[in-house]
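Researcher: I'm preparing a figure for a lab meeting and need a structural model of a single chain. I don't have an experimental structure, so a prediction will have to do for now. The sequence is pasted below. Please return the structure as tokens so I can convert it later.
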Amino acid sequence: MLNSLHKLLDYFQKERLEQDNKTVEAITAISKALNETKKYLENSKGQKCYNRKKEFELSDLWSEASAAVYCVHKADKQFSIELYAKSLYWSGIDKWSEEETTNKKIRLEDIESQIESLLSKRS
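Model: Understood. Here is the structure written out token by token.
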């Protein structure tokens, strides 16, 4: 019986480690997308469609971040959906109003707040 308990404990420790690794990967993916977006916005000085190639790259980064978050928190899909919406925003930038970005919670401030929430869940 002790051997069975030991195996069960090992299993849960491995699961926890895997979940922690996925969380780190998700936070890294979000941070990369966020930082690249901030750099782009600073370089573009507010011009829309400043560099469509870079905007599509940002779209890909946000899509990757969405998938990474989904792998960590399947029960809380909303943040993953919001990051995917950010991906759609960058692939079609001139189709979104300020009101839509606010309602979909894809402003950079909203995403930074979600990262803080994700980090505090792991504390």
